[in-house]
Amino acid sequence: MVDRDGEVAGGIIAGALAYRLFIWLLPLALVLVAGLGIAADSRAESPHDAAGEVGMQGLVSSSISGAADSSKRWYALLVGIPVLIWATRSVLRVLIGAHRLVWTDDRSRTPRPKLLAALRLLGLLLCFGVVSTVASAVRAWSFGPGLIVTLAVVFVYAALWLLIIVQLPHHETDWTTLIPGALVFGVGIELLHVVLAYVITPYALAKQGTYGALGVAAGLLVGLFLISRLIVASAIVNATLWARRSTPGG
After folding, report:
1. Tens digits of residue pLDDT in 190-228
2. What is the Rg, in whole angstroms, of the alpha carbon atoms belonging to the chain?
3. DSSP string of 149-184?
4. Rounded to whole angstroms, how far apart are CA atoms 12 and 33?
């Protein structure tokens, strides 16, 4: 696996993917800002309170609560949704390219980043946020159920990621071949959640007074790079195990 990662330049692929995910976060934040502001108006409460109720926290929570005070939230929503779809299609294109390189797949069989595929990816990515928000709320409510949810959510993350990678290049192997990488992603993303919540996010927010927006951007990029590295590792695990099984005597 280490050899394959070096051959395909896994770190460089992860860097490119992290950049696209960062760009994807911009219209996503725009849509969330608009939606949070509208929800706050309908319930006559502050955007900051609305952000807390739906679990928005970390590096972008303070920015969302401030920007949602804008009187032109509907315009931001109308502009943000099509841009978000376009950015999701860009992320899908990089995911396809990354998995094709890891699997050394034939370009002629590479799926195209079509609109429906991009919408499907967007829905699944949003599901990650919903699951994470629900899990955080349960953990804050009670320790016992929170522990059970923490263990169960690993398999939910793995299932969601399996639904994504089954549409990406993988030598057209059976979907069961992709389960090991999906489990690696599920466990890894839960561990990264702890690192992001208790290490990277507090450090970035603490340095915001020193570095301003650059500190927040740096924290986001580090977190996105770690997630992207995990995505590449998931593909490498599946591709390596498949190659060993396909090799006579392997």
Report:
1. 888 877 777 766 666 666 666 666 767 777 888 889 999
2. 19
3. HHHHHHHHHHHHHHHHHTTS-STT--GGGGHHHHHH
4. 32
CA torsion through residues 27, 30, 35, 38, sign: negative
Contact (CB, 8 A) for 158 and 185: yes
Query: Which are the contacts of 24, defined by CB distance < 8 A and separation ≥ 6?
Result: 84, 87, 88, 90, 91
Mean pLDDT of 1-12: 88
For residues 110 and 172, the answer to whether their CB atoms sit within 8 Å is no
pLDDT of residue 55: 36
Q: What tokens appear for 96 in the block?
A: 């396809």
DSSP code, position 70: -
Three-class secondary structure assignment of 79-114: HHHHHHHHHHHHHHHHHHHHHHHHCCCCHHHCCCCC
Segment 75-86 mean pLDDT:
84
Top-confidence residue, 210 or 29: 29
Cα–Cα distance measured from residue 239 to residue 235, given in angstroms and rounded to the nearest whole number: 6
pLDDT at 34 over 50: yes
Distance CA(21)–CA(228), nearest Å, equals 9
Is the sign of the CA dihedral 188, 189, 193, 195 positive or negative?
positive
**Which ranges of the chain would DSSP assign to H, the alpha helix?**
2-7, 10-43, 47-53, 61-67, 73-102, 115-141, 143-165, 179-195, 201-206, 208-211, 213-246
Counting Cα atoms < 13 Å in the Cβ hemisphere of 238 gives 33
From the CB of residue 143, how many other CB atoms can be counted at a distance below 10 Å?
Answer: 9
